[in-house]
Amino acid sequence: MIAPNPDLLCNEAGQYYYDFLSEGDESIPDAITEHMEQCEHCQRQLAQLRRALSQIDDLELQQSEVGPAPVIGMLKRHFAYIGKCVTCSTVRPFILSLLDPVLTVRIPTPITAHLCNCRQCSEDLDKIRNLNLSNKQLLRLSQLFSEEPSDGLSVRPEIEMAAKSVVAMEFKDVNADVLKQLCKDPACRKLLYKERQSICDSLRDNPRPAEFPCESVSSRDIFDYVVPYGLDPAHDQYAKFRESLTLHLRSCPVCLARMQELYREIYSIVERPESEVITVYNVDEFSERPAMDKSDGFYRGFPISVEVVGREDEMKEEQEASVIGFGDALKKQKISGKKLRPLFKTAIAAAAVVLIGFGLLLSIPTAKAVTIEGIYKAIERVRNVHISSFVTDREEPIQEMWLSRTANIYMSKTGSELVLWDVANGTKKTKLVDAGVINTTKMTKDSIAGIKTRIKGSLGLIPFYNISEVPAGSKWSQVDSSGLEVGEGIEVYDLKWTQKASDGSDVFKKWRVFVEAETNRLHRTEFYEKLTGDEEYALLSVKEIEYLEDSQIRDLLREASF
Predict the structure, then answer these.
(1) CB 94 within 8 A of CB 299
(2) Could you report the per-residue pLDDT of 171-192, keeping only the tens digit for each?
(3) Using alpha carbons only, how large is the chain's radius of gyration in Å?
(4) Selection from 72, 10, 98, 18 nearest residue 360 by Cα
(5) Residues 260 and 293 in one domain
(6) Over 70: is that where the pLDDT of 396 sits?
């Protein structure tokens, strides 16, 4: 048998491995077939690919909703673009897979590689993420993004009638295909916008009293009326539950204006022209998985490169792929360009080699390491939260805080005193729980600014207001949680740093977090301190964090009689 020698035909043979295993492919040159049959190196790669393909087939037989099968299917769709030019329109239909936590992508793919290099696509993704849409809504939006651009059909009378029904939010008799056309066709979309704007203008001149709290209406609540693509009104079993909402929306200029804003945000993405960025994701070599130094990052050593090509097909740069954080551009290194050389013709082969052939799907930890930066970003995405603060000598919380960024309110409970800061109305309400008497005062500009800062900030969950204040020399490390009470998916980390006391001695600080690795959300924090000469850290305070829905905030305010 021929000894392995990459300088022979191995590199060229790599392009035909999958075809060779498929048998009977006449496109393989005879010389390549003969080489693969005799080459020890190619035989090892073929055996590895055969095992990987078998493993993927086995995984697809699993039907668990949260098991690996959906992830495998999604990754195979990503890897269908290996070696191909990926543009903005290529990426848009993958919105659901990029935002669904169950389908979290933990390795670089042709789709995520484009996101890392294209600022406009990254911004589009962030905009959609901030809407907090449901998975069904994201799926429909992804399907809309998959549609071919329409040439702009003429608007027929029945389409005009359907548009009026949709704007009136009474479209139970509108055909599902007509709803799709209203979203796909630019002329129809403009008609929807124009009809809704005329209602906005009429309400602005003749405002009607609002009987529904506008601040409780989210983008998720109004999305279906702005983007009815994929809805089937004839089989909408939840229509009756939305009657109170639609009754409010029809007559509220504030909410209708928000619908127009959401319209502009969504369809600006649909209509946005391609950026100048085109990416090509290549597998450079089909070789054994290299040894990895953990200090260099878990994915260092991937046999992958990403080429960034301009609209004039001029090679600009190539960057080594690494684990991807969406919205964050990877550090780029200028190196010489290479010819595009995909190894495999099929997505399943590419996915198998990259994911399983290199042991990166089932044999590795399920999440990348949590970082302080990730925690800060997760806090920025919080909508509603309840934080209870404890000290070591008391079982009851010394303070509770409820914060809603959607309703723009901040409420705290200390002892028997309950205080609500309502930024939208510029009021501060104070109530003694036992007495039930509410004292209302107007907030000053300074107090409003202060509460806004508190609502937008780190919520008091992190010892430092922003990440730039973390002291140089601080140590961030994961803690072995085997002896701690932690829930499923929770990891424990410590941040340690040193401060100087007033007498010049060292004070050692430790901030311990119990964080959900999947989302970077904090569930508990503990603050410790140790003085010079002490052997152990002393626990000073604890915070427990609960994340709430908008409806829970509304219920809380009703219970508090605010």
Answers:
(1) no
(2) 878 888 889 988 988 888 899 9
(3) 28
(4) 72
(5) no
(6) yes
Whether 139 is covered by a domain: the verdict is no
> Is 220 in the same domain as 352?
no
Q: What is the pLDDT of residue 157?
A: 82
In the chain, the percentage of residues whose pLDDT exceeds 90 is: 19
Rounded-to-integer distance, Cα 288 and Cα 535, Å: 48
Residue 188 near residue 163, CB atoms below 8 Å: yes
* Model pTM score: 0.50
Tell me what the pLDDT averaged over the chain comes to: 76
Residue 498 near residue 504 (C-beta atoms within 8 A): no
Do 464 and 407 fall into the same domain?
Answer: yes
d(CA 190, CA 205): 23
* Residue 360 clears pLDDT 80, i.e. is over it: no
d(CA 529, CA 496): 10
Q: Are strands 490-500 and 538-547 parallel, antiparallel or unpaired?
A: unpaired
Q: Do 55 and 73 fall within a single domain?
A: no
d(CA 175, CA 71): 33
The tokens of 280 are what? 């090509």
CB 108 within 8 A of CB 322: yes
SS3 labels along 259-327 = HHHHHHHHHHHHHCCCCCCEEEEEECCCCCCCCCCHHHCCCCCCCEEEEEECCCCCEEEEEECCCCCCC
CA atoms of 377 and 371, how far apart (whole Å) = 10
Tell me: do 427 and 524 sit in the same domain. Answer: yes
3-state secondary structure of 544: strand
Domain presence at residue 155: yes
Q: Are residues 255 and 294 in the same domain?
A: no
Contact 72, 59 (CB under 8 A): yes
Same domain, 290 and 259: no
d(CA 241, CA 218): 16
Edge-to-edge, what's the strand order for the sheet holding 538-547?
Answer: 438-442, 427-432, 417-422, 409-414, 399-404, 384-391, 538-547, 521-531, 506-516, 490-500, 475-479
Q: Which domain holds residue 540?
A: 373-559
Number of Cα atoms under 13 Å in the Cβ half of residue 380:
12
What letter does residue 369 receive in the DSSP assignment?
Answer: P
Kind of pairing, strands 490-500 and 475-479? Answer: antiparallel
Q: Average of pLDDT values for 191-204?
A: 88
**Which strand ranges, in their side-by-side order, compose the sheet holding 85-86?**
85-86, 278-283, 304-309, 315-320
317 and 289, same structural domain? yes
Does residue 63 surpass a pLDDT of 50?
A: no
Look at the block and give the residue holding tokens 């693509």.
Answer: 229
Amino acid present at 364: I
Position 164 pLDDT exceeds 70 = yes
What is the total count of domains within the chain? Answer: 4
d(CA 261, CA 254): 11
Mind spelling out the 3-state secondary structure of 422-437? ECCCCEEEEEECCCCC
